[in-house]
Write a structure and sequence with these properties.
It is a single chain. By secondary structure, the protein is of the alpha/beta class. The chain is built from 11 helices and 12 strands. Strands 1, 2, 3, 5, 6, 7, 9, 10, 11 and 12 form a 10-stranded mixed beta sheet that branches. The protein has a two-stranded antiparallel sheet with strand order 4-8. Helix 3 links the parallel strand 2 and strand 3. Helix 8 runs parallel beside helix 11 and helix 10 crosses helix 11. It is elongated and about 150 Å long.
Amino acid sequence: MTRRRIVTALLAAVPLALLAGWVANHTYWEEVKVPMPPKGEALVNPFYATQRFAERLGARTAWDRMLVVPDSNAVLVISTWHWSLTRNRRAALERWVESGGRLVVDNRLVEADEAFENWTGIVRRYPDWKNWKGEPDPACRKVTEEVSGRPAASPNVLWLCDLGMTWLESTRVPEWALRDNRGIQAMRMRIGRGRVTVINAAPFVERTLFEGEHGRLFAAATELRRGDEVRFLSEEEFPSLPALIWRHGAPVVALGLTLLAALLWRGASRFGPLAAPSAAARRSLADQIRGTGRFALQHGGGESLHAASLRALEQAAGRRISGYAVLSGDQRLAALARATGFDAGALAAAVHHSGRSAAGDLRRAIVLLEAARRELLAIHTKGQHGTR
């Protein structure tokens, strides 16, 4: 390596060494705890942390995704719930509060319209956007406790987070309230024998319980006592339509599925016939004719058979004997006897057979008529082709 290259390498290494020294002097290693993502029940239950907190304080908790009216001395915490979805369940909840229940709702209450405001007397107010200067809100604000519209003798001072820019108002004096420099952020109203507490934030869902002093707020808003039953209600995670159908109509669903299975089974293709197939049998044409004739003889059809045999003989004679159609009856019998060689008396008895005598006589008459017909046909065939 030449001296010039050595000098160039040193000049390039000096800035890198200075940069490394500056970075080393101005940086340090520090451990930062990063919360792990939720898993198990905490992944689907937005009140998981608050439930465990309440249980540590001696309460019994449950999470519902449909309204289950608890006992009148219980606590119901609601978040992300449609207040005006159906009138029946809203009326059931109102009756429960008036009978002594403690209801706590946050600012995620959906459709909290005039019905809720008229029932509780609590209204959410918004700033005058035209005159709003846009000053940033701190993440957490200090609130002071009030009792019956006045500061408490020993007021609790709490830090509440994610309050937003709104506040609460009421024409009635609240039993308990938390106020900051903007207005009331939480208040409790007595309705009948129960109480309704409205919080202008959502401090009890997901990880928000660990922000500010939301644990103290939970105990104060619910008026929690050891042994209380605290139920959490949210429609953010609700059962699927099949689950709801099964929950409310399991007998009807089971009966319908049974009937459907029976109909499908009845109309389905079977693997085989209902009965064993009979052996295939075929008869010749002669067997078929003989069987038909035998059946006709046995069941009173002798006259029809005789008439059919006589017609066949007459047709053959008409084609084979010249002038047969103009001959009289006796002349026809004589012509048939000459053409076939059969006895004229036997032919006359067969032709004039009534068909009502014994079966043996009828059979012989038909046989003779058929033999005469065939003889006529044979004579004609011999006349055309000659003898061999």
